[in-house]
Amino acid sequence: MVAEFNPRLTLLQGPFGAMDVLLAGRHIFRVDGIALDLGVSSPQFDEAERGFSFSADGPLDMRMSQSGPTAADVVNTMDERELADVIYTLGEERHSRRVARRIVEERANQRITRTGQLAEIIRKAVPRSDDGLNPATRSFQALRIYVNDEMGELTRA
Predict the structure, then answer these.
(1) What is the pLDDT of residue 98?
(2) Measuring CA to CA, which residue among 126, 119, 79 is closest to residue 98?
(3) Phi, psi torsion values for 44, nearest 5 degrees
(4) Can you name the residues that pair with 59 across neighbouring β-strands?
(5) Which of 40, 68, 118, 146 has its CA 20 to 30 A from that of 153?
(6) Are the CB atoms for 49 and 41 separated by under 8 Å?
(7) What is the pTM of this model?
(8) CA 44 → CA 8, 19, 57, 62, 141, distances in Å?
(9) Residue 128: which residues within 8 A CB-CB, separation 6 or more?
(10) What pLDDT shows up at residue 56?
């Protein structure tokens, strides 16, 4: 598909916030438009070892790259209030305070390191909704966005 738009379409792989460096590296100094690939792909959710999915147990990672703090680092160290704010703001989870409180209670007994472990903690804090959405969906979304600084990347883009 890219070939049919050549040379008008150039794909660059990298963080949105590094767009200026990526473009300069290809000697591109003017663009007519930009398309951003937002979100995660199905293969990332399908690979339990990436730590994005609550349907298959894996390490609690959620990083798009292999650098920076993992979701496990966040849930095991972040202050309860800040954790609740992240879950509310980035996941639009109405029960964010309850989720954060439960996470803090659980991590006092044992470090949270697995997606299945976190999903179970969240399920105990969030009532099942009528729409069939898994109770862990919004909290996992919030943690993924936070860990990867997705909002910051959009701003820098």
Answers:
(1) 97
(2) 126
(3) -65, -40
(4) 114
(5) 118
(6) no
(7) 0.82
(8) 30, 23, 13, 9, 13
(9) 135
(10) 82
What residues does 114 pair with on adjacent strands?
Answer: 59
| Cβ contact 65:149 at 8 Å | no
Token reading at 111? 């470090």
* Residue whose pair of structure tokens reads 């954790």 in the numeric block: 83
Q: How far apart are CA 112 and CA 74, in angstroms?
A: 10
Closest CA to 142 of 103, 77, 93, 76: 93
The two tokens of residue 27 are 């000697």
As a residue count, the chain comes to 157
Q: Rounded CA gap, 91 and 85, in Å?
A: 9
Q: What is the pLDDT along the chain (157 residues), one digit of tens a residue?
A: 678 887 778 888 888 888 889 999 989 888 888 888 776 666 665 665 665 667 788 999 988 888 889 999 999 999 999 999 999 999 999 999 999 999 999 999 999 999 999 999 999 999 888 788 889 999 999 999 999 999 988 888 8
How far apart CA 119 and CA 125 sit, in angstroms, is 10
- Exposed, middle or buried: residue 8 (CB in 10 Å: 0-12, 13-18, 19+)? exposed
